[in-house]
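ok so for the tutorial part 2 we go from a plain amino acid sequence to predicted structure tokens. step 1 is just haveing the sequence, like this:
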Amino acid sequence: MKKARPTDQIDVQALRVGMFVHLDIGWMSHPFPLSSFRITTAAQLATIRSLGLRTVRWSPQQSDLSHDEAVRGLTTLPGPLGAIAGDAANDSGLDDADATDTVPYALPSDDNVIDAVTHAAQRAHAERARKVLRQREAEERCARQYSEAARACRHTLDLVPAKPQEARAQAEALSRSIVDKMVGEQDLCIRMLTEGAGDKASMHAMNVGIISLLMGRCFGFDDEEMQDLGVGAMLHDIGKIEMPVRLRHREDNFSPNELRVYEEHVEVGLAQARRMGLSAGAMAVIGQHHEHADGSGFPGKLNSDRMTMAARIVALVNRYDNLCNPHLLARALTPHESLSLLFAQGRAKFDTSILGAFIKMMGVYPPGSTVQLTDDRYALVVAVNSARPLKPNVLVHDAATPRADALVLDLENAGGIGIRRSVRAQQLPPTALDYLAPGARVTYFFEPSAPVEVEE
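step 2 — the prediction. this is what the tokens look like for a chain of 456 residues:
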């Protein structure tokens, strides 16, 4: 079991810029991208104090304040916390004389050289352990945030048939929460989660919703457009909720009647959307997510000019996720193969500007792709910076390092190492397949860029 970083409780009124805090409330209960972060502005301080919390946890070791600065700040606090901090300052064991003493210079002995080398090795080992720990923490934090959002999504879908108005409120709140996490100028990292939480329907809704919103951000959608896009993307398949399970996914052997029932899920979804009282923008997404730019889609055979921008985005992202995560997993394509197929066969069916932006955002090798590097090692793409997608972060198969201790390699700073080719999971050597362990389904989430410590 890993050892947790030491934290202290502090009154929210005593917080200062530079402190690293942990907000022990749900990820969707505050407007910050992460629940643990370093306070950098007075506006962040004011926001934390407006959350209604009396105290929060903070980590002195992760703060920008020095130990003495932190102690001086805490000694002003009333009650036992200030007394404890004052005692810590008095017991530091240093005085002015200690600070001004000088040490005469001496030539190092052989023993000193050996000690120096040993200490350097120990420091390097400790630094690597720190990076591994921070990497694990980032992965776990992202997984917790996804799980919270996925549970809210599942709850929303369950409410649609019997409580449509409540379902609308839940969908709008979830979309708003996710959009709030995406605002700002910071780059976002698209991460593949090792384990998706939830059933296939909610995982598909989450994948389409998250990636569609990231696309809307790329195109500069305003708040209202982002809200409509998020609600419509997550609810695009609500017409399937009460359909027989065997008809929810289109199959080549469907009879004409079965195909008709399947395609009717769009009209049923629109009827549900009207009962929920969704906005016109969200309803357009639900009604047009199976239309194609060339007019070959359904139900209205609309071309690109008659589709909304949001619907064109969701139509593409929906197709991509269905290629990566089909109903029958034996038919699944890797994210790289799915992207290649969209580019080769879908240029007539999807808006070319949206397809180009999608490839630019996700990279040629999206998260979840298994690849071979230019130095012949095998790797799994685990994250992509949406602003620098050609140099993703990869987990590399290294027989000398246990899987749990492996550091992610940032190809942007990897000394010329790149990706040579995409490899299907079934084509990996057995040892590499066991080590990389690509998931059966690809699940995506997002976080601020540079979320993990990377190997030099």
